[in-house]
Amino acid sequence: MGVVRAASADADRSPKQDRSRATRRRLLEAAVACLAERGWSGSTVAVVAERAGVTRGAAQHHFPTREDLFTAAVEHVAEEWLTTIRRRERPLAPSGPDRTRAVVELLVEVFTGELFRAALHLWVAAADEPGLRPRVAALEGRIGREAHRVAVELLEADESAPGVRETVQGTLDMARGLGLATLLRDDTARRTAVVAQWSRVLQATLRA
Amino acid sequence: MGVVRAASADADRSPKQDRSRATRRRLLEAAVACLAERGWSGSTVAVVAERAGVTRGAAQHHFPTREDLFTAAVEHVAEEWLTTIRRRERPLAPSGPDRTRAVVELLVEVFTGELFRAALHLWVAAADEPGLRPRVAALEGRIGREAHRVAVELLEADESAPGVRETVQGTLDMARGLGLATLLRDDTARRTAVVAQWSRVLQATLRA
After folding, report:
1. Sequence-distant (≥ 6) Cβ neighbours of residue A50 within 8 angstroms
2. A25 and A33 in contact (C-beta within 8 Å)?
3. For residue range A15-46, what is the model confidence (pLDDT) as tens digits?
4. Structure-derived torsion over alpha carbons of residues A134, A180, A90, A208, reported in degrees to the nearest 10
5. pLDDT, mean over chain B
6. Would the keyword Cell membrane turn up in this protein's UniProt record (chains A, B) (predicted)?
7. What range defines the domain where residue A79 resides?
8. Exposed/middle/buried for B50, CB within 10 Å: 0-12, 13-18, 19+?
């Protein structure tokens, strides 16, 4: 009978867990949108809960503090970011200038979307919030390492060759800088030209 | 007699103008430090006036609104930035790899200091403040064009050659991305390696 009760409790718990996961996801997505649109100062647990259509109590059950919510939100951003990149890995052209350019475009694209905008707000807020700073710094370090690993893989770069590691890192820094440039205005035309030229230089440098 | 009065008023005005200029400068410098340390949400005219040792009334005489004060502050940042760069122009090595590296170091340096940190806070705040956004976007555009012009000049780059303009722009984007990376932690070792490698690539690309 104990077994039967446990099994029944299990069957019972599953939809609850699904609901809980869905609530958590809604909160994280609302938190990202809120950060991207209103910045850190306009982003509180109450504002995010309302936007997600969740009670404040339920939000606090998932994320006891504002710092918990927004660090988890940017972690969620990072996971989405990596999933986006990996999903695109398949249709890339074989090695050559076309592949290099497609990879640079891909890297720049993820640094110019809503996800990066939200992350940027969190980075800047963390610079002034001692309670947030170490968590965001650790998260940023993890994202940087992962982004680097993915970039090396997609570019099929040989990091044992001198300068290759730093060239790939410089490419990610450039992508970050281009993301910053889109914060206030449409920078598409300039960005397209920079990406095309950078891809040529990168191709020549990586295959030298 | 009208002439004498005017002349006397002039002589009288001069030290007053000096005091006024000094007050304005103190306010701008306090505003930059305040933005860099406390972000937009912690930066009000009252906080800046107190920091500068100026009455709130005197601060508002110079800058009627918070937007006026902080846009002027970042304009001041930009002027300092350009002065710093121009002051260094003289002792640069003649054309060659050493000069290229010195220029890249110089560009990256100005994007990793307190001035850039303050500008970054203003950029991010402006993204969410409709009253601030067009002014900061115009200012950012002007700084971008000036930085580009100075970079071309110092690198002695020939912009009539294909790709050179975009290579220089990509270098400035990379410098901006490196600045962002220093926001939360000491990134010096990684940055030094990226700068060294990018200087080699840039030298080869510009002289190709």
Report:
1. none
2. no
3. 888 888 999 999 999 998 887 777 777 789 99
4. -100
5. 86
6. no
7. 2-206
8. middle
Helix, strand, or coil (residue B57): helix
Is the per-residue pLDDT at B1 higher than 70? no
Pick the residue of B43, B132, B173 with the most A CBs within 10 A to test the interface with A by mutation.
B173
- Looking up residue B73, the CATH number of its domain turns out to be 1.10.357.10
User: Which residues have a Cβ under 8 Å from the Cβ of A172 and sit 6 or more positions away?
Assistant: A107, A144, A147, A148, A151, B177
- pLDDT tens for residues A8-23? 445 556 788 888 899 9
Query: Which residue on chain A is closest to B173 by alpha carbon?
Result: A177
Which A residues 121-180 touch B at CB under 8 Å?
121, 123-128, 133, 136-137, 140-141, 144, 163, 165-167, 169-170, 172-180
Please report the pLDDT score of residue A6 as a whole number.
Answer: 46
Select the highest-mean-pLDDT range: B35-39, B93-97, B113-117. Answer: B93-97
Tell me how crowded residue B197 is: count the other CB atoms within 10 A of its CB. 20
* Model confidence pLDDT, tens digit, residues A57-70: 999 999 999 989 98
